[in-house]
Amino acid sequence: MTTASELRDAALEEFASAGYLGTSIQAIAARASVSKASVLYHYSSKETLLDAALSPAIDAIAALLPRTVQLSGTDADRHDFLVGFVDLLMQHRLAAQIFITQSGALVDVPVVARAQQIIQQIAAARPQQTVDDQVRFAVALGGAAYLLAQAGAYGVEAAPDDVQLRDSLIRILDELLAPVTAS
Amino acid sequence: MTTASELRDAALEEFASAGYLGTSIQAIAARASVSKASVLYHYSSKETLLDAALSPAIDAIAALLPRTVQLSGTDADRHDFLVGFVDLLMQHRLAAQIFITQSGALVDVPVVARAQQIIQQIAAARPQQTVDDQVRFAVALGGAAYLLAQAGAYGVEAAPDDVQLRDSLIRILDELLAPVTAS
DNA sequence: ACGGTAACTGACCGATCGGTCAAGTTCTGA
DNA sequence: TCAGAACTTGACCGATCGGTCAGTTACCGT
Q1: At what angle do helices B93-102 and B131-150 cross, to 10 degrees?
Q2: Which residues of B touch A172 (CB under 8 A)?
Q3: Which residues form a coiled coil (chains A, B) (predicted)?
Q4: Whose CA, among A6, A43, A77, A135, lies 20 to 30 Å from B137?
Q5: In the complex, which nucleotide's C1' lies nearest to the CA atom of residue B36?
Q6: Residues sharing a CB contact under 8 Å with residue A34, sequence separation 6 or more, in sequence order
Q7: What SS3 class is residue B105?
């Protein structure tokens, strides 16, 4: 509604589609129908704008962090965590896309570095297991994130409220991460 | 060995770590210990350099395309395809990383557009099935690609000859794509 | 009505980018 | 030996970038 929030949303879409480095402040200004100087009035720098665009998603994943203990719990616990993870990806699809595709090139940006640390903590929360288990974990979470982030690039629309996709994703992740001893 | 191949390798590493837009010709020149003008003598433009860096990987995945028919075949056929896919990812890790993280922002670059078309053809070769099957396919291939491309960002080294990782990945992809009727 | 503050803008600045060019150097084959 | 091709380079160019600033307009409490 406000100009600031419009700029934040415009930046989120632009950063996701053209990349942070490929997006000029002018482009964001044009998308929100204001001048470049006006963008820099609301956000003191391009980096501040990226921070504002990503922060909600990072707060959400940080809130998910305490629940990683559920990964070592019962089947129901692990299921609860996966539901939270998938919902997080679907609700913050653009932010997830920005992080997945550009975190490597933007490690020197504080907000991205913070997000990377949280992801690493989630990965570390997984109890030390076999290589197979590590690969299962990486393929599951990475595959889900990549699927939702890049779905649009291959014609598949991933609407935030696509419950069929959500349920299917949770089911398959559940199956992939289930202890093999339970088979 | 030659200056041209050294520049191609330097560009591949730089594009993968800093991104195409985040890499200056000067940076590639410095990595190969030559001048910026010398880079533009061997490759007429920055885009030509990206083309040269990605082409071997794209040729390899194009060669894999005829084998997508195996996805509809027996378990052994599907296994053969997955072996080819995983080996491709491991042998062209940097090119895969560039494509996975930057194909969205570089759609207007011909060599990237060509790669995207090939990926789409592979995805389309999968016979029309349920949403579950589509999600399985996307999580498997996307997860494997993302794991190998981004492994370095999370401390896990994915050496091109890590047979343990390779075998584990193939086994899990096999399991993920096996028809549920076989369970 | 009015003073102050928030919002907005065009003009401008220094830096960096991709790319060109003329000149110099090194290599090679006859 | 030497002509010409291959290679390398510093200097330079126009364009675009992120960011600054002085000045203008719109809004709001009193």
Answers
A1: 120
A2: 132, 135-136, 139, 176
A3: none
A4: A77
A5: D9
A6: A3, A7
A7: coil
pLDDT level of residue A5 (50, 70, 90 thresholds): very high
Instruction: Give the list of residues 6+ apart from residue B61 with CB closer than 8 angstroms, or none.
Output: B88, B115, B118, B119, B122
Say how many residues make up chain A: 183
Find the Å distance, CA of residue A4 to C1' of nucleotide D21: 21
User: What whole-number distance in Å separates Cα of residue A52 and Cα of residue A13?
Assistant: 13
Quote the radius of gyration of chain A (alpha carbons, Å): 18
Beta strand residue intervals within chain A, DSSP E: none
Greatest distance between any 2 Cα atoms in chain A: 61
Distance CA(A16)–CA(A39), nearest Å, equals 18
Across the range A7-12, mean pLDDT stands at 98
In degrees, rounded to 5, the angle at the alpha carbon of residue A139 between the alpha carbons of residues A133 and A86 is: 110
Is the Cβ–Cβ distance between A123 and B153 less than 8 Å?
A: no
Q: Say if the Cβ atoms of A17 and B104 lie within 8 Å.
A: yes
> What CA–CA distance (Å, rounded) separates B69 from B44?
39
**Rounded Cα gap, residues A64 and A85, in angstroms:** 8
Tokens at B55, concatenated: 């082409």
B45 Cβ within 7 A of any nucleic strand C atom: yes
User: Is pLDDT above 80 for B159?
Assistant: no
Token pair, residue B164, equals 């343990």
Is the confidence at residue A144, as pLDDT, over 90? yes
Q: Which of A18, A55, A33 is nearest to B102 (CA)?
A: A18
Which candidate, B112, B15, B9, places its Cα nearest to that of A105? B15
pLDDT for B18-30, tens place per residue? 999 999 999 999 9
Structure tokens at B175: 């399991």
